[in-house]
UniProtKB/TrEMBL annotation:
Entry superkingdom: Bacteria
Pfam families for this protein: YceI
Full protein name: YceI family protein
Domain Lipid/polyisoprenoid-binding YceI-like: from-to ranges: 6-175
UniProt-listed InterPro entries: Lipid/polyisoprenoid-bd_YceI (IPR007372), TTHA0802/YceI-like_sf (IPR036761)
Length: 177
């Protein structure tokens, strides 16, 4: 049996983000600026990794102070009641040489639901200071209404202001401990 290896996020080379359609035709991007994550693997093999992530809901940022204030309000994240976003992996399965399927429980706005994310591995690399790094691109889609994030506004031309579909996009670099 391989030795257990612990990995932590390299925050200077990681971005946890999302994209949502605005007015049904423009993508608005945002990110979570404050988070922690831990990953535990058998040696350097990420198949069946144990993964946990916790993000501070009040660190959601979209580049617009007015929009961010609205997102943090009771209309969306309601950070006073629900200060954290949590993800706990239930499986991390190798699909092929560079790709994995990540399933887990996402808790947001007081609701926990299972999500499935696609993960592409860029492999392992040693940096100039001798640290072993692993890099992954993560993507997936959720329906925000499944977590009780239901606020919206109708458009005069039909449709809605904010899409129900939220695309999760993350670039993650881990450091072997």
């Amino acid at each position: 049996m391989a030795q257990k290896t612990k990995w932590v996020i390299d925050p200077t080379h990681t971005e946890i983000g999302f994209k949502v359609k605005h007015m049904m035709f423009t993508n608005v991007s945002g990110k979570i600026d404050k988070y922690t994550a831990t990953v535990e693997t058998d040696g350097d093999d990420f198949a069946n990794a144990v993964i946990s992530f916790s993000g501070e809901a009040n660190s959601v940022s979209t580049g617009s102070a007015e929009r961010d204030k609205h997102l943090l309000s009771a209309d969306f994240f309601d950070v006073e009641k629900f200060p954290t976003l949590e993800f706990r992996a239930t499986s991390f399965t190798k699909v092929d040489e560079d790709n994995f399927e990540l399933k887990g429980d996402l808790t947001m706005h007081g609701v926990t639901k299972q999500v499935t994310l696609e993960v592409e591995s860029a492999g392992l690399m040693k940096d100039p200071w001798g640290n072993i790094k692993a890099a992954f691109s993560i993507k997936g889609k959720i329906n925000r209404k499944d977590w009780g994030l239901t606020w919206n506004a109708a458009l005069e031309t039909g449709g809605v202001l904010v899409s129900e579909e939220v695309r999760i996009v993350a670039e993650v670099q881990l450091i072997k401990q």
